[in-house]
Amino acid sequence: MASPYDQPYRGGFDGPEHRFALTVYFEDTDTAGIVYYANYLKFMERARSDMLRAAGIDQRGALEAATGVYAVAEAHVRYVRPAKLGDDLVIVSSLEEVRAASVRIQQRVMRGDQLCAEGRITAAFLTPDGRPTRQPRDWVERFETIRTTPKEHA
């Protein structure tokens, strides 16, 4: 019999922002108990993947149908303050720009109301052979709808 604890955690949208919570585990830290800098990119990747899922974007289906896949084309990260072992974090993601063959996503790694890191990621939509191609039109429309949705909680 399945337990409710057998289901993976899913984030969700609060207006135009996607929120994804996680806890910093030992594997995420260095010997001083501080999150290793590259792991912020992993946290952001998990949040972006969950954001796409929550938006109804079927990346796996697109991959299996050989329609195309997203690949990070550019990443800028600014580290503000360290997150530490045991911290509960929320990655807040928002769509900054939607273009024909790419999307730019702004992400903030928050510990409560404190900013730990922020990133701006450009994901290009690529054909199976790695060439940029237009995103499916319905995906672009979903992104634009999300981008212009008013925030529910002030």
TrEMBL record:
Gene3D superfamilies reported in the protein's UniProt record: Hotdog Thioesterase
Transmembrane segments: none
One Pfam family named in its UniProt record: 4HBT_2
Entry-linked InterPro entries: 4-hydroxybenzoyl-CoA_TE, HotDog_dom_sf, YbgC/YbaW
Keywords: Hydrolase
Similarity remark: Belongs to the 4-hydroxybenzoyl-CoA thioesterase family.
PANTHER family the record matches: 4-HYDROXYBENZOYL-COA THIOESTERASE FAMILY MEMBER (PTHR31793), ACYL-COA THIOESTER HYDROLASE YBGC (PTHR31793:SF37)
The protein, known as: Tol-pal system-associated acyl-CoA thioesterase
UniProt source species: Sphingomonas swuensis
